[in-house]
Specification:
The complex is a heterodimer of chains A (312) and B (657). Chain A is α/β, with parallel strands linked by helices and 312 residues long. Helix content of chain A is 42%, strand content 14%. Chain A contains eleven helices and ten strands. The chains are: A alpha/beta (312), B alpha/beta (657).
Chain lengths: 312, 657
């Protein structure tokens, strides 16, 4: 008798979340990541290309170099990401609003968000500076400015979910809910948001990302547990698509950005960071990320190929 | 007790209560909201209602005008129900609550408390046969022919009278012997202690003192100490007193106290603090009943392992460090005076045996008192104290674990927390629409603080009314003065300064709620891990017994709403009261049970939670109201949905009114 691969099937599914106003959707799978012999993964994991609204000055040359033309122009950056690198989504980080930096008012940053959303035809995710206080104000302005665009806004955290959730609710946007690497805390935030009135089908979970060498295994196991709870235990508060914030985290690693002059034994600095980003992204795809935020054009292209080959 | 029927209008809700019940308490029981802020002292004058039919007696009515009295107004808090009555709650007392909104009929209000009848069934081993007995002896006077020594003469008489063989006479008694028996003309009373392996004559008194014999039961808790005085003739508790453990000033938790003992005189100081607390309580119970100190013949003390070590002056330092080893598990009968409890000569003390470093004699005493070691039923016993201790099993097996819950439910670490003594808020209702509270205090005094049952009620009501969210944070944007930003985040005012007994606002704060949430999460996580360890889930548990010093009005359904107890139906849950004290009481009266306690301590298997990797996960999951796994709390979700619906209706009704 021929060997038959044992199958574990389930009636549970990750919710399909509509991004933007077109037909882009994420989630919907009824299997663990890429277990395509057991079920289906109707939507491929999406790559969100990360852009900043203030020209980032502290990026490693390896990544700042290829982006130098667009670094100071978020609209051009977003357009290029869509046209040339095959971005599925744009993630706009409103760093200019950071109270520890330029501390620009939310209304002003929201104009950039609206301009970016207008300039591309793919859906947009808008993140604040991750200052709990300030993000409330900033994202309220974003929700208003981007009305009708169904942007994903966040990250909503335990201490500002009310403001951000209410703004998303009022202007019919989607929410990214972020919690510090813990399945329970992620679930709790989903419950809080849904009690606030946010539709569970309009929530994406950002479980906090650790890059390769910096807690990747924690994120991996949290994502994996989240998917197992969603699919095997039919736990409705874990059936949200997952987002992995790879670009920022991978390029924070000293192994990714240290110049070859400082660390000659680590090899070519122009390749090292790209590989760091690719490895982090690939691992988290296998862990269950439905949206991957990425930075370097070469890394994006490679990970896209990985998704293609895994998706078959 | 004669029952009477009380009907509240316009709610149109009727309940049966004992004749003589307080009217405000009856309203609480019927879940009819009446504004009440002063705990039932009759001071705030807010709980005015109209008696339309029937009879109540009113203590005083200074807050009512002549006109109002004529129209049938009374203050609910100072009214005693004398017959079937119809009560109308006037609109101003409801504060705009729309009568059309029906609240779910109250689920078991006081929980199910075990009664004396249950004990007979659960503890067939129990009999009134205390470990010490007084024998009145009229000795033959010695002669040249009958020239036995004084000691042998007493032993002969004990053998003749009571069949006692081989009684050992305590050395101090020997010293007193010659003078005393002659001064008493050979008419004496001898107290004999049955230590299990040996009979020991421990005290001799002049004349016949045998009718006067008492014992003490002591619950030595980390936070609270309770003492009962027991009449050994009848088995009745004649007085009871409790107080905070004097050791608290050396540290709130046992770890800090163990560390303190490593200082030069630390152990002696902690021992003397515990002895001092117990001694004060002994004085109180003795004074309350005008008992003579010398009628007390023994004490049974139950406490956690560390508390017992500290009381006995045993070095507890190895309890704290891996692999967590106590000095002893079983403790001999010792002279109370050896540790500084000087009640009378020859008073002996016995500490209930412990299971492990973090499961002590308090839980052994509780398991004994609960009778679960006799039961076929799978029983879960939960002692909610400073350490939440949990036992699971039946007559064939017992598993136990301990989780560090902290003293929040005993009122410590909570801004206005207190023990269940006079003036403690013990029952609370909050109106969903107006957010006004209805409170009752122990002894119907102006409130001075909140006790365990009041804290559980407060949390449940804050949660159901949406004043507090699932994370335990108070919403300060509700447009009522009852919620406000305090020094440490949000707070809710249960009683205003001018209604309180302390002239300060009585509040519950975000920080209090956080402490209570941690306590409940530790306990709930412990329950889950213990069940998981034996491959069971909560539905397989046939009976859940709750112990703890909550006061009389612990409401089981409220404890479920906050996720302290599993949502498995209130009919399975029974309340034991202070299990440690009850066990001590039973053992003080029955030497059979002292032997049983040894057997139970040997039978219990201890599970160390600190080595369980799942504990943290379960704990974080429980740090949420009622719990992150909301599907495990179906009735709570229903009640929450209903409460939200009522609040919505009420708010809408309020706008149109």
């Amino acid at each position: 008798m021929a060997f038959e691969v044992p199958k574990e099937t389930t009636d549970s599914r990750i919710r399909e979340v509509v991004l933007g106003t077109g037909d882009v959707k994420v989630g919907g799978e009824n299997v663990l990541p890429f277990y395509l012999w057991e079920g289906e993964m109707p939507k491929r994991p999406l790559i969100a290309v990360e852009i900043y609204d203030d020209s980032p000055s502290d990026w490693a040359e390896a990544v700042a170099g290829p982006l130098s033309e667009v670094l100071s122009d978020p609209v051009a950056w977003a357009k290029k990401a869509q046209a040339e690198w095959g971005a599925d989504l744009i993630l706009l980080r409103l760093k200019s609003t950071d109270p520890k930096g330029d501390d620009k008012p939310g209304v002003e940053a929201a104009k950039t968000a609206a301009a970016v959303a207008e300039a591309v035809t793919i859906p947009v995710i808008v993140y604040g500076s991750e200052d709990v206080e300030k993000d409330g104000e900033v994202l309220k302005a974003v929700a208003t400015a981007c009305e009708g665009k169904n942007v994903v806004m966040g990250p909503a955290k335990e201490d500002n979910y009310k403001t951000i959730g209410a703004a998303a609710l009022g202007y019919n946007q989607t929410v990214a809910a972020k919690s510090p690497i813990d399945v329970n805390l992620a679930k709790q935030l989903n419950i809080l948001l849904s009690n606030l009135g946010v539709d569970v089908g309009k929530i994406i979970v950002d479980p906090t990302t650790g890059a390769l060498g910096y807690g990747l295994e924690y994120t991996y196991s949290i994502m994996e547990r989240f998917k197992i709870a969603a699919l095997r235990q039919d736990d409705s508060m874990t059936q949200m698509p997952l987002l992995a914030d790879v670009g920022t985290e991978a390029w924070k690693a000293k192994e990714a950005k240290a110049p070859a002059a400082d660390e000659p034994q680590w090899g070519d600095e122009m390749k090292r960071g790209v590989l760091w980003e690719i490895l982090t992204a690939t691992s988290l795809l296998i862990a269950g990320a439905d949206v991957i935020i990425m930075r370097h054009p070469e890394a994006i292209k490679t990970v896209r190929k990985v998704i293609d080959s895994l998706k078959g | 007790m004669e029952k009477v029927r009380v009907c509240f209008y316009p709610e149109n809700r009727c309940i049966e209560v004992d004749k003589g019940e307080n009217l405000l308490r009856a309203a609480m029981q019927a879940d009819v909201h009446i504004n009440a802020s002063c705990g039932g002292e009759g001071y705030c004058g807010k709980c005015r209602v109209i008696i339309e039919k029937g009879e109540v007696t009113q203590k005083l009515a200074v807050k009512l005008s002549q006109e109002e009295v004529k129209r049938g107004y009374v203050l609910a808090c100072s009214s005693t129900i004398e017959s079937d009555v119809d009560v109308r709650v006037p609109i101003e007392t409801q504060l705009g609550d729309k009568s059309a909104l029906t609240r779910r009929p109250p689920i078991p209000l006081q929980g199910y408390t075990l009664t004396a009848k249950d004990w007979a069934e659960r503890l067939p081993q129990w009999e009134l046969n205390p470990p010490t007995t007084k024998f009145h002896l009229v000795l033959d006077k010695p002669t040249l022919e009958d020239n036995l020594s004084d000691a042998e003469r007493i032993k002969r008489e004990l053998s003749r009278l009571a069949g006692l063989k081989d009684v050992v006479i305590d050395y101090p008694m020997l010293q007193a012997l010659p003078g005393l028996i002659r001064a008493a003309s050979f008419d004496v009373t001898v107290t004999v202690l049955d230590r299990g392996q040996e009979l020991r004559a421990v005290r001799i008194e002049k004349g016949d003192t045998s009718p006067r014999q008492a014992a003490l039961a002591v619950d030595l808790g980390t936070t609270t100490v309770s003492v009962q005085l027991i009449d050994l003739q009848t088995g009745a508790v004649t007085a009871e007193a409790s107080d905070y453990n004097g050791q608290i000033s050396y540290g709130e938790d046992i770890i800090t106290r163990i560390i303190y003992t490593t200082r030069s005189t630390g152990l002696a100081k902690l021992q003397s603090a515990a002895v001092g607390t117990i001694w004060n309580l002994i004085q109180q119970v003795v004074e309350q009943t005008s008992t003579e100190f010398c009628s007390i013949t023994h004490l049974v003390v139950s406490g956690n392992t560390t508390m017992v070590h500290l009381l006995l002056g045993l070095d507890p330092r190895y309890i704290r460090v891996d692999p967590y080893i106590p000095v002893a598990q079983f403790f001999p009968w010792i002279k109370a005076s050896n540790i500084g409890i000087r009640i009378a000569s020859g008073v002996y003390l016995r500490c209930t045996p412990c299971v492990a470093s973090y499961v002590g004699g308090d839980i052994v005493a509780g398991v004994l008192a609960s009778g679960m070691f006799n039961s076929e039923k799978i029983t879960l016993y939960i002692d909610i104290g400073t350490n939440g201790e949990i036992a699971l099993g039946n007559k064939d097996w017992l598993m136990t674990c301990s989780c560090s819950a902290g003293p929040a439910f005993e009122g410590a670490g909570v801004k206005h927390g207190m023990r269940a003594t006079r003036g403690a808020i013990e029952q609370v209702r909050i109106n969903e629409v107006t957010h006004e509270p209805m409170i009752i205090t122990v002894g119907n005094r102006r409130p001075v603080g909140i006790c365990g049952s009041g804290l559980i009620d407060t949390l449940a009501e804050l949660f159901l009314t949406g004043i507090m969210d699932e994370r335990g944070k108070i919403n300060t944007d509700l447009g009522t003065a009852r919620v406000r930003k305090g020094d440490v985040g949000g707070e809710y005012v249960l009683a205003w300064a001018d209604e309180s007994g302390t002239n300060r606002d009585i509040v519950i704060t975000d920080v209090d709620i956080d402490n209570l949430m941690r306590a409940k999460a530790a306990i709930y996580a412990g329950i889950n891990i213990l069940l998981e360890e034996v491959g069971m889930d909560i539905t397989m548990v046939e009976e859940i017994l709750i112990a703890g010093a909550f006061g009389r009005y612990l409401e089981i359904d409220k404890a479920i709403i906050i996720g302290l107890l599993p949502d498995v139906g209130t009919e399975k849950i029974k309340f034991v009261g202070n299990g440690s004290l009850l066990g001590s009481y039973l053992m003080a009266l029955s030497k059979n049970l002292i032997e049983e306690a040894d057997r139970i301590a040997n039978m219990m298997t201890y599970l160390e939670l600190s080595t369980s990797p799942k504990f943290m996960d379960q704990y974080v999951s429980a740090l949420f109201f009622p719990h992150t796994e909301i599907q495990m709390f179906p009735t709570v979700m229903e009640r929450l949905a209903e409460a939200r619906e009522r609040a919505k209706l009420g708010a809408a009704g309020g706008e149109t009114a």
